[in-house]
Amino acid sequence: MSQSTRVLVTGGSGFLGGHIVQHLFQDPATTVAIVSRKPKSTSSDARISYHAADITDETRIKALFDEIKPHAVIHTVSPHHTDAASALIRTNIDGTKTLLKAAKACHETQAFVYTSSDSALQPTQVPLTEDKAVLYTETHYVRCYGMTKAVADALVQAANGSELGTAVIRLPSIYGEDDTNFLPQLVSGLRKKEHKMQVGKNKKVFEFVYVKKAAEAHILASRALLDSQKAPAVAGQAFFISDGIPQPFFDFARKCYAAAGSPVKPEEVTSIPLGAMKVMASLGEWIYFIFTLGAKTPTLRRDGIDHLDGGACWSIEKARRILGYEPVADQDEAIKISMDWAMKNC
Prior knowledge:
Protein name: NAD(P)-binding protein
CATH architecture of the domain at 5-172 and 209-242 and 313-327: 3-Layer(aba) Sandwich
GO molecular function, one term: oxidoreductase activity, acting on the CH-OH group of donors, NAD or NADP as acceptor
Family: Belongs to the 3-beta-HSD family.
Keywords: Oxidoreductase
Domain Ketoreductase: 5-177
Shape: globular
């Protein structure tokens, strides 16, 4: 970042956002403003400030931009993929629109980086480049979460212009220290002795990304947008980010189990048919809905099983060439560090 750079990070108290904030602090001239509904104060550093706000509240968001005057915005906040459609639409679509409007109206704000997802794209099993990627739309989608991420992805790219440079960072499943979703699920499965099970034939490949590298990619994009020489190649663009090692989902999971001291031999794997799991998940959701009147949802959900029937296979060459991004040097070591943390904290 350039000298005396002010960065506003939505969701800066969360998993990815927290790592982005840590990365930003490597530059002593950068100050960070964390904006979320209930920001968690984790540092007494004078360079960081915490601001409670609903990102769909235009008056509040405008006031924050007037106060903070950020040079760059990194927008990571999103509800969980299992949240209600109304919450997903409100935060991912309406909230992104509100932030973009405020960023464009703030003279000091020059860069806007958005965190998108593999869920926003139609799945592929061949190395996909950004120019061939197909985003879901409001009328064509599989899951509401993916639709809202896709619409926001497109909104951010379209908002690029002379008054605001924008970029989209598209991420697959994230793993790493402080994870609140993926690794805790793996640890739970391990402790329940379910780690030798897999759903389906485990043939479709997925991308994964170590959280520190995901955070770094956002910083690279924001730096480039603030650099007059680099900005033209980055502005209005989307970038695939991953470890660059597409692999079947349960192969990656078993790498994690092995790193935690519980390797699984091929002959020990029990495979449950994908179709049967879809039926079980759907039935479980209906039972929960009937007996809790929609107040609770089961851990096993149909959209999670459907995700295993999708997959993702990306080329990260564009990010390498334009952003200077390099994936984690040793994925096995990153997994080991991550699982050491998870086994102690989950």
